[in-house]
Design a protein that fits this description.
CATH architecture: Orthogonal Bundle
Radius of gyration: 18 Å
Number of domains: 1
Number of helices: 15
CATH topology: ADP-ribosylglycohydrolase fold
Distance between the termini: 48 Å
Helix content: 55-70%
């Protein structure tokens, strides 16, 4: 396959002058990113696996956090995108850094607790970890799903301000527990660096050029400026294409999420990733109050605490 041959592409380093945001503003943006992840997850879960036509016929434009969907969720309940991120965040805080063994043990405990949903690749490689004790899945060209990309926010927070090579190492420590794949790695790294850039208040056009367009340059399969991606699958390329199309073509937090979840498909994950980026871009005040109040309070509390704690670990929190 084309994308498999592109795995050999080299990663060109991006040299960026970081602008340090005031600590209180940084903490607010970190909370907004975590809340955005949970909101996008809960909003998208209702229409996960529906096509855009099915959404239009059944709902019209999907705008509200109402639960339901194939998982029959309660309104405001989140899925594996958020709960796995929180499990990773707890492991990072407990260990004091991003550590593969700690992440694998946290994910294993999360799976034993019977989450509402779990991806096939995640399940398979966590079962392998149980058998071997090795916290790194075998490299596979076929493990290019979005399961590692959906949970990168705790890494982005804990590694804010670190050199890019250290961020790449930390991401792979958590990602390779379940997804040891170059395409997946590239997507995860791009998302983390975009979150960092948005926290720093960098110009959006510059972020697009140095992150999103650079990703496409390295791996042309990620090209997102052609046809509109609808009904995106769990393949990380389609996830990133749909998220980037929504993120770069809208001007508000709400419009970004409505754009991406109404494409259907793996809408909880596209919603979670888009919500993370949009939260980092627009901040807390831009998040619709009706969406924020709809999310389970315990989940919001965990997101808030981790946003502060992980930034503190990076030496950046108030």
């Amino acid at each position: 396959m084309l994308w498999a041959r592109e795995l050999i592409a080299r990663r060109a380093p991006v040299r960026v002058r970081h602008v340090v945001a005031p600590r209180d503003e940084l903490t607010e943006r970190a909370k907004a990113a975590y809340f955005g992840l949970a909101i996008g997850d809960a909003l998208g879960a209702t229409v996960e696996f529906l096509t855009p036509n099915e959404i239009r016929h059944q709902i019209g434009v999907h705008r509200e956090i109402i639960g339901g969907g194939w998982l029959r969720l309660k309104a405001g309940q989140v899925t594996d995108d958020t709960t796995m991120s929180l499990a990773l965040g707890e492991a990072i805080l407990a260990h004091g850094s991003v550590d593969a063994k700690s992440a694998a043990e946290a994910f294993d405990a999360w799976m034993k607790a019977k989450p509402v949903d779990i991806g096939n690749t995640v399940r398979r490689n966590l079962v392998l970890f149980r058998k071997t004790g090795i916290p790194e899945a075998t490299f596979s060209e076929h493990d290019a799903g979005n399961g590692a990309a959906m949970r990168v926010l705790p890494v982005a927070l804990a590694c804010y301000g670190q050199p890019e090579k250290d961020v790449v190492f930390s991401n792979q420590a958590q990602a390779h527990v379940t997804h040891n794949n170059t395409i997946s790695d590239a997507a995860c790294e791009t998302l983390i660096f975009m979150v960092h850039d948005l926290f720093a208040g960098r110009d959006l056009a510059e972020i697009r050029q140095q992150r999103a367009d650079a990703l496409v340059s390295r791996f042309p399969v990620f090209a997102f400026n052609k046809k509109r991606i609808e009904n995106p699958s769990g393949y990380v390329v389609e996830t990133i294409q749909a998220v980037f199309q929504a993120f770069f073509s809208t001007e508000t937090f709400e419009d970004c999420l409505l754009d991406v979840v109404n494409r259907g498909g793996d809408a909880d994950t596209t919603g979670a990733i888009a919500g993370m980026l949009a939260g980092a871009r627009y901040g807390l005040e831009a998040i619709p109050k009706r969406w924020l109040s709809a999310i389970d309070g315990k989940t919001l509390g965990q997101c808030s605490a981790q946003a502060t704690g992980l930034l503190a670990l990076a030496g950046c929190a108030t």
